């Protein structure tokens, strides 16, 4: 039986989540309460009453189009290979469609899982451009390395991005940013752009960078070199937006499924979500 989770299901949900992902109860409850939110968690229940699968359909949007981000899909090891998660995803998608969702999207935990979701109607339309750049310090103009709030991040994306970008509500986005900063990511703003990055030895891993043009992106990277001492950067950039459009090679980053017939899944940009492996595809 597939149904919406209730408060009475919480102990079973936490136990299954722990069994599959190994997270601590405080983190799990935070995800269920604040990222997924009430009315957005679905479960599968066996005939004996045991909860054997769970997922969260987190509200998100692309412009004015509402959608859901499928998060923390977990099936009990004893119930796998029986189509339970496929059925639960279909149930959640139909509920989302009834609430006028135009799309469903997700970030697989690894490249090996892409095939699983492709076989369930998702398309590999969300890709990132990967680009290696040498760095040399040459700071010009004002540079700000302070933490971004959800409002800051939304404002910067709206200023510099024309891509069809998956966005969460402000409270959910704060959780996503908390997760990124706690994981060692930092942010930079200049007069011409912004970036979110982390560092591995002499190389910067730039998870997101948008700027008004290539020169502004060069200035931003030079400021990063000046601040961090890094000599190279690996950039992940939007497929059809942002700087250096003629450069880089494409790699899959996330998956999306059309729930509304007239909605186009082409050239969608999705980069961050709570607990998503921001660097797993580097």
Provide the β-strand percentage band: 25-35%
Give the low-pLDDT segments.
Answer: none
Which superfamily, in CATH terms, is the homologous superfamily of the largest domain?
Gcn5-related N-acetyltransferase (GNAT)
The topology string of helices and strands comes to: EHHEEEHEHEEHEHEEEHEEE
Fraction in helix? 25-40%
Provide tags for this entry.
single chain; 282 residues; alpha+beta; Aminopeptidase; 2 domains; 14-stranded mixed beta sheet; 7 helices; 29% helix; 33% strand; elongated
Description:
With 282 residues, the protein is α+β, with helices and mostly antiparallel strands. The protein folds into two domains: 2-101, Gcn5-related N-acetyltransferase (GNAT) (Aminopeptidase, 3-Layer(aba) Sandwich); 127-251 and 264-269, 3-Layer(aba) Sandwich (Aminopeptidase). It has helices at 10-21, 25-36, 84-98, 114-118, 150-160, 170-182, 214-228; strands spanning 2-4, 41-45, 51-62, 65-75, 103-106, 123-134, 143-144, 164-167, 186-190, 193-200, 203-211, 232-238, 249-258, 268-269. Strands 1, 2, 3, 4, 5, 6, 7, 8, 9, 10, 11, 12, 13 and 14 form a 14-stranded mixed β-sheet that branches. A hairpin with a 2-residue loop joins strand 3 (51-62) and strand 4.
């Amino acid at each position: 039986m597939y149904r919406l989770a209730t408060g009475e299901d919480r102990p079973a949900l936490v136990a299954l989540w722990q069994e599959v992902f190994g997270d601590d109860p405080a983190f799990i409850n935070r995800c269920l309460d604040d990222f997924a939110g009430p009315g957005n968690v679905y479960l599968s229940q066996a005939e004996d009453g045991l909860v054997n699968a769970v997922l969260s359909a987190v509200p998100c949007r692309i412009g004015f189009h509402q959608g859901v981000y499928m998060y923390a899909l977990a099936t009990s090891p004893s119930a796998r290979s029986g189509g339970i998660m496929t059925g639960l995803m279909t149930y959640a998608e139909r509920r989302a469609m009834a609430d006028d969702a135009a799309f469903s999207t997700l970030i697989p935990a690894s490249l090996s899982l892409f095939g699983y979701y492709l076989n369930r109607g998702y398309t590999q339309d969300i890709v990132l451009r990967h680009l290696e750049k040498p760095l040399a310090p040459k700071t010009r103009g004002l540079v700000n390395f302070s933490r971004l709030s959800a409002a800051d991040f939304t404002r910067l994306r709206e200023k510099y991005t024309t891509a069809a970008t998956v966005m969460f509500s402000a409270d959910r986005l704060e959780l996503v940013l908390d997760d990124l900063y706690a994981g060692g990511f930092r942010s930079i703003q200049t007069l011409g752009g912004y970036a979110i990055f982390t560092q591995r030895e002499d190389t910067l891993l730039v998870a997101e960078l948008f700027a008004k043009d290539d020169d502004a992106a060069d200035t931003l990277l030079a400021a990063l070199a000046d601040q961090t001492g890094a000599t190279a950067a690996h950039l992940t950039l939007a497929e059809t937006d942002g700087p250096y459009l003629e450069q880089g090679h494409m790699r899959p980053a996330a998956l999306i499924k059309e729930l509304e017939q007239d909605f186009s899944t082409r050239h969608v940009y999705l980069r961050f979500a709570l607990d998503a492996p921001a660097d797993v595809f580097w």
